[in-house]
Amino acid sequence: MTDLWNQQAVQQYIDIEIQESLVLEYKAAEALGKSDGKMREITKDVSAMANSSGGRIIYGVKEYGSPDKKHLPEKIDPIEQDKISKEWLEQVINNIRPRIDGLLIYPIQLDSALNHVAYVVEIPQSTTAHQATDWRYYKRFNFQAVPMEDYEIRDTMGRKQYPKIGLDFKIELATKRYFSQFENKQHIETSCVLKVTARNTGGIYAQFVNTFISIPLPLLHELTIEQIKHENEEMIVEEGQKYYEYYEDNTVRDVVDVESNIYLSIPKYGPSRYDPILPGLSRTWEIILRGDFEKVDLDGLLIKWSTHVDNAPVSEGQVAVSDIRIIDDRNA
After folding, report:
1. Class assignment of domain 160-332?
2. Does residue 132 contact residue 47 with C-beta atoms inside 8 Å?
3. Taking a C-beta distance cutoff of 8 angstroms, is the pair 322, 293 a contact?
4. Do the Cβ atoms of 278 and 202 come closer than 8 Å?
5. What are 299-311's pLDDT values in tens digits?
6. CB under 8 Å to 43, separation ≥6 — which residues?
7. Looking at the whole model, is its pTM more than 0.70?
């Protein structure tokens, strides 16, 4: 990995605008300071990543300050190596308790000056919970390091005992084209899909995964709303907002036979079975949202979920829709 990390590799993150995520964070040079507050912040950020899914922190990259480019890298922000050395950074990180096994720090020489560097800190996901120097436990959530609840700390410490399923959300916009024989013309519309990836971040495989995802009414596709009315389904109401609950699991149906005629082949499926999610692997579910998603006022809208996995404690959470990454492929 040492050969892969150089100034060109870091610059590429900036050029193609790789956004911060659960496993990636950028920090400007000023984040590495020798005050007690800044050293505490280092242990907070590093321990949060180890307590979550692992990942990397790139020190020496400044983010944009404007809201429309939030969490995007702007430029390299050199660190003076004679003031902030790799050994000093390593010593600060080693104040995390317990120490994080397998953590690596890569110094990157910059061409702006002989003493200018950036540091890439590669952080593995841990099998226990790590405490920052302020005596608290942190996790990564919505691009930040936030305090962990008591049950989350116990859950993290038990990663070797049961599977741990984490959910990642993204919204994809695409152009959908179809021809209407009735109208004898082609239609072009925007499709909006919420993709929910369930990843096993624990140490053992997940046999049974059952997830309930609550989507707020303003995001629902019109066909979903019609289905709710037609089947007289009930919606959940919380704090004045209506939610429709989707159920997802890790079941699959195998093709057991194929019936063919002169026009087409029709597969025949066997009964559903649970397909285990191995450690480090994932399963993605898709939920169709309304096509005019961009017209919706996202202020205050939340997506909520609860996940039940084997003998693991129930995992619950929520994410602001405005914080979900949007991928726009309409011009692709």
Report:
1. mainly beta
2. yes
3. no
4. no
5. 999 999 999 999 8
6. 92, 93, 95, 96, 132, 133, 134
7. no
